[in-house]
Design brief:
Layout lengths: L3 E10 L2 E11 L4 E5 L6 H8 L7 E6 L2 E2 L2 H4 L3 E4 L11 H11 L4 H14 L15 H13 L5 E5 L7 H16 L3 E5 L3 H7 L2 E6 L2 E7 H7 L4 E6 L11 E3 L10 E6 L6 H9 L4 E7 L3 H9 L9 E2 L3
Parallel strand pairs: 3-8, 3-9, 6-7, 7-8
Antiparallel strand pairs: 1-2, 1-4, 2-15, 4-5, 9-10, 11-13, 11-14, 12-13
Helix pairs in contact: 3-4
């Protein structure tokens, strides 16, 4: 059973469309990338999934039942991009307060806090105030307070913002561990490299609509251009083939490597056969798949960084 089903969700502000007929499902233990340019509707969608606002049309099914914001919110952890911490409050007291708000008893909350503080090397922070923390330290605290109550659904909006590589990797490993233990994670970010490393499924939204949905592998296969790299001991002078064309290499392509594009109706093995017949030693051969960043730019590159919501037409 899916932990989350979003069916034809719509949200309007006056005569403007913020979310326009978006549907998707989220399986238990999956890490789901929610992508889109600024102003695409991601924040509005997240606010509906957390009960902050209500959809005008459509339905949210949580854990097999229609979403109940009052009760189901206790099973959701939401880490917003903007810090949601009390600056003047001591860190230990704040973690305890937020855990109790999520339904934990005091003893269970204290046990969970101590476990997470130890895991993240935060034991000495207990009596510090949030205003005394660096941006990275504050981000670690916000992540901990998001997952303290062991939510079934975790929504992370730019969770690596302000983190150095060591702490970013620490949180990345915890994301994998939480998913392995059955939590479902929605991960929203503009950093496509992290999406490729972490997510198993993505959707891309633009102007309030879903324009792409699939596993990372499926999406890359969908946008591949039949490009291959082949590394050779010696690069032949003239290369003529009915099966492929040699492409102008990118700046970072090694000198012993060619980039070739298969012609329609031909197969990659024909590239290998061509060079074997030439008597050239082949040291490596691989397909070139586009990065998520390249796909993102191709699909939404002409979208302004901020936008007016699309007007509703009759």
């Amino acid at each position: 059973m899916n932990i989350l089903e979003v069916n034809n969700l719509k949200k309007y502000y006056a005569t403007q469309k913020a979310v326009d007929d978006i549907s998707f499902t989220l399986a238990p233990g999956s890490i789901f990338g929610l992508l889109g340019p600024n102003g695409a509707g991601k924040t509005t969608l997240i606010r509906m999934l957390t009960g902050i606002t209500y959809p005008d049309e459509g339905q949210i099914i949580f854990n097999g039942r229609p979403f109940d914001p009052v009760n189901d919110i206790l099973k959701i952890g939401y880490m917003p991009e903007e810090r949601g911490l009390y600056k003047k409050m001591k860190i230990g007291e704040q973690a305890l307060y937020l855990a109790r708000l999520k339904g934990l008893g005091k003893l269970e909350a204290m046990e969970n806090i101590r476990g997470w503080f130890t895991r993240f090397e935060m034991q000495s922070w207990w009596n510090k105030k949030v205003e005394d923390l660096s941006k990275g330290m504050s981000q670690k605290l916000q992540f901990v307070t998001t997952v303290l109550h062991e939510p079934k659904l975790i929504i992370l909006d730019e969770p690596f913002s302000g983190l150095d590589p060591v702490n970013a990797n620490m949180i990345k490993e915890e994301i994998f561990r939480l998913a392995k233990n059955g939590a479902s994670i929605i991960f929203s970010t503009h950093r496509m490299k992290e999406v490729e490393e972490i997510c198993d499924h993505i959707i891309l939204v633009n102007k309030g609509r879903k324009i792409l949905d699939g596993t990372v592998r499926q999406v890359k296969q969908q946008f591949k251009e039949n490009l291959f790299t082949i590394s050779l001991d010696t690069i032949p002078g003239d290369i003529v083939s009915n099966a492929f064309e040699v492409q102008v290499p990118d700046e970072g392509t090694p000198k012993d490597t060619l980039v070739v594009k298969m012609k329609e109706g031909h197969k990659p093995n024909e590239v290998l056969q061509h060079f074997l017949q030439e008597g050239v030693n082949i040291t490596a051969f691989s397909e070139v798949l586009p990065s998520l960043n390249e796909i993102f730019i191709r699909l939404v590159g002409d979208t302004p960084t901020t936008r007016q919501f699309e007007k509703i037409t009759a």
